[in-house]
Write a structure and sequence with these properties.
By secondary structure, the chain is mainly β. It contains 1 helix and 7 strands. The protein has a domain of 93 residues: Sandwich (Immunoglobulin-like), CATH 2.60.40. The model has no long low-confidence stretch (mean pLDDT 85).
């Protein structure tokens, strides 16, 4: 069985970049921590919510790198000198990556009750009709 790619469809032109984005997203290495939700808040807006209990604002960074939203968390070692009988609260670093489509912009980030909310907006698509003149060759 051969692998189907967007290039396998002759009527879909110029989608090579989309195929590369899909491959990059699949290889991003996102593990299951921290858990997150993605919700559509309107026709042209979204919200990503990450459960980041135990992280302070200064422990988190949010960047956009080459059309990827990258959210990183790194906590300092607060366990020095403390003796834990049980340590079930994760304190490890993380990196979550989300591939953004053209036209999607990152808005504000809000931290509340151990949840990090990142708002995204997408520009409304324009309906464009273009007439191409035919000339004699």
């Amino acid at each position: 069985m051969s692998k189907l790619t967007l290039g396998s469809y002759p009527h879909m032109l110029g989608f090579e970049q989309l195929e590369r984005l899909l491959e990059r997203s699949a290889k991003s290495g996102n593990e299951g921590y921290p858990p997150y939700n993605i919700e559509q808040t309107s026709d042209f807006s979204y919200r990503i919510t990450l459960a980041v209990a135990g992280f302070a604002e200064e422990d988190l960074s949010i960047t956009v790198e080459d059309r990827q939203l990258v959210i990183r968390g790194r906590q300092g070692d607060d366990g020095a000198g403390r003796v834990f009988l049980h340590r079930g609260i994760a304190g490890r670093q993380f990196q979550r990556m989300f591939v953004l489509a053209d036209g999607v912009e990152v808005g504000e980030a809000i931290m509340e009750n151990g949840l990090l909310h990142v708002d995204l907006t997408r520009a409304a698509p324009e309906s464009v009709v273009q007439t191409i003149n035919i000339r004699k060759g």
